[in-house]
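Morning, I've got a small favour to ask if you have a moment. It would help a lot if you went through both lines with me. I owe you a coffee for this, so here goes:
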Amino acid sequence: MALSNSLFAQCLGYFLAFLFSFIVAVPLSENSNDFHGRCLLFTEGLWLNANLTAEKQRFTVQEWGPPSACRFGLFAGLLSLLLAAVQAWRTLFLLCKGHEDSFFYAFLNLLVSAFVMFVIFIASTIVSVGFKMWCDAVTDKGSMPYSCEELQEIDLELNLENSSFYDQFAITQFGLWAAWLSWLGITILAFMKVYHNYRQEDLLDSLIHEKEFLLGRSSSSRTSFQDEKSGMI
């Protein structure tokens, strides 16, 4: 019963990780198309007057963010999506068959889960910090009369589609941090399983040692008894 509950919890964790990773991959891909491959994370820019006489201001990008920042977020989402799908299918198979992982596979699963959790955490931090820098730039650190969310409804005249950037990265951040929480839970369950298997093997080794010790004492007792009997004869 405990085994079934553990496998069911793992299967549920993988399903949630798959769902949240899908939420990450879709908006990031859409934003890459809207911005023609440019990455708004860590972008530096400022508002300048359109000309010397006009009061109208225009947002000017000084330096676009590194494309690797957006690509890493997409890579983390796709990695989590793929591994969650494979592990969910594998765990569901074990659950239906009533099988259990060996100590080696349980330990390998722990390492993989911890690695994905670490990658997702790094990607979540990069996206959150990078998007905050973009919002600080387009709102001039809050001095503009519009919020970062409201600015997606205004044409920034950057020769790209900026009508959904806030929604896209809000969804991406939610998906990444939710996926990280899912992998955190999966890693904790994997650690508990490894610890449980280790305790079981340790207990099994103790029982084998105790059995050998008792068999050795029994054999020694029989030998001693036979020697005493021979001496009396």
Remarks:
- The mean pLDDT is 81.
